[in-house]
Amino acid sequence: MSGEVQASTEEQQEMQDTVVSPEKAEEVKLKARYPHLGTRPGGSDLLRKRLQKGQQKYFDSGDYNMAKAKMKNKQLPTAAAEKTEITGDHIPTPQDLPQRKQSLVASKLAF
Amino acid sequence: MAGAGGGGNDVQWCFSQVKGAIDDDVAEADIISTVEFNHSGELLATGDKGGRVVIFQQETENKSQPQCRSEYNVYSTFQSHEPEFDYLKSLEIEEKINKIRWLPQKNAAQFLLSTNDKTIKLWKISERDKRPEGYNLKEEDGRYRDAATITTLRVPVFRPMDLMVEASPRRVFVNGHTYHINSISVNSDNETYLSADDLRINLWHLEITDRSFNVVDIKPANMEELTEVITAAEFHPHQCNTFVYSSSKGTIRLCDMRASALCDKHSKLFEEPEDPSNRSFFSEIISSISDVKFSHNGRYMMTRDYLSVKIWDLNMENRPVETYQVHEYLRSKLCSLYENDCIFDKFECCWNGNDSVVMTGSYNNFFRMLDRSQRRDVTLEASRESCKARQVLKPRRVCAGGKRKKDEISVDSLDFNKKILHTAWHPQENIIAVATTNNLYIFQEKVN
């Protein structure tokens, strides 16, 4: 009985928030899509990601083969999982390979 | 070209030039990453993701034709940085030019600092318009003459030649940063400069490349305790002992190098108090400052966060003296902007020559002129549609919701891939350089 009462005041608060702040409404939307957001422990994910911004892992055949040998019976770690790790723990797989860089040419602004 | 650089909204802006390719298929290397006028405004430098620098020079005015505006033409272009590989960490170091800063001119040559994520370089750009001719031991094409055939001696002389502009790297400042360099700033003492990465700020001497002095270090002993990073830093324009740095939490710290060698403790902390009831998941992200710039007169500084521009009086730490909304209509789109990463875009901002107007970019190739003296603002667009010579730019309007008026564009129609992150204002005249993804637009004040 009291649980129901609690729920409705929470709903009321949320409704109020939506009316008062578009930002809060957006937060509700986001939390609905990603319920585990912000709950992971160990420092800010965002900041950690920022510190490694845009860094591609290169394929190291030595690492790859050693990992494969170690994990004969298990599956190789999937690429998607830990893109936030700095180094060492994440063995890049061929799927992680970045695109080949373009050859150096002159800037188009200079024409 | 009188222009004291004032009056943002009495000023009518006209298209002057556009540089870069027209095609929509943009190669990553062509993405412009920095734009900067030199101290006289005669030179305009751009850096791109491919590590290249292009410098444009303003043509000297044709006095007999006052309507003819001085144009910027290519002066020099060179490969500043190349991609590198850190073998220890198995990581690539991008060649993208993060910042270019000019040194004040001391002699015939021009100098600029350009930096990527890890390495800063000092480039000398010099002109050569004569060359020696008449060597005794060499032919004109460089082949050595047979000594036996030389019967007389002559004195080589300098003869005029077609102007050649050469760029050469004079200093390379390496290994100063573990994290990614986001800012460089030349000191008013003209001898030192600072470079800032996410967690540290270093002081360098322009002549010395093998060592650097660490002045700010906010790295926690345990990285799990990391709560904020440095986002930008700049030296005061006149006080050589003073610099500021901004953070991802929306604060600015002013440091005085006379107070101590290590400036971990700030002299002033600029922070606007937040209403805790308004706090949301996005609050900290959108409060992150992407750029900080001192005014030319040194009394104010401007900060850019995701949705606004704030002007701070250096004598008042507890709140900004002016706040301008850049694109408030995005507040109700934060969820999607977080999902497509746009919420992390780093917009820059700049002052005009007499500090009366500030400018910053937005999406859909829009940019905003905020007139401080007249408290007015206008939104303009850099697009290929308004590229006729001397065509006046029409103000743009975004409809936040509800009924869209004619000529307005609705928030949902905005192209979030067309971002103007980098803009620059000529130090004296009403000439602005606006960078879209891969094009550089130059707009000038309408002259009757």
From TrEMBL, chain B:
Known partners and oligomeric status: PP2A consists of a common heterodimeric core enzyme, composed of a 36 kDa catalytic subunit (subunit C) and a 65 kDa constant regulatory subunit (PR65 or subunit A), that associates with a variety of regulatory subunits.
GO molecular function terms listed in the Swiss-Prot or TrEMBL record: protein phosphatase regulator activity
Keywords: Repeat, WD repeat
Matching InterPro entries: PP2A_PR55, PP2A_PR55_CS, WD40/YVTN_repeat-like_dom_sf, WD40_repeat_dom_sf, WD40_rpt
Xref: Pfam families: WD40 (PF00400)
UniProt KW Cell division keyword: no
Superkingdom of origin organism: Eukaryota
Gene Ontology cellular component annotations, sorted alphabetically: protein phosphatase type 2A complex
Family in the record: Belongs to the phosphatase 2A regulatory subunit B family.
Protein name, UniProt field: Serine/threonine-protein phosphatase 2A 55 kDa regulatory subunit B
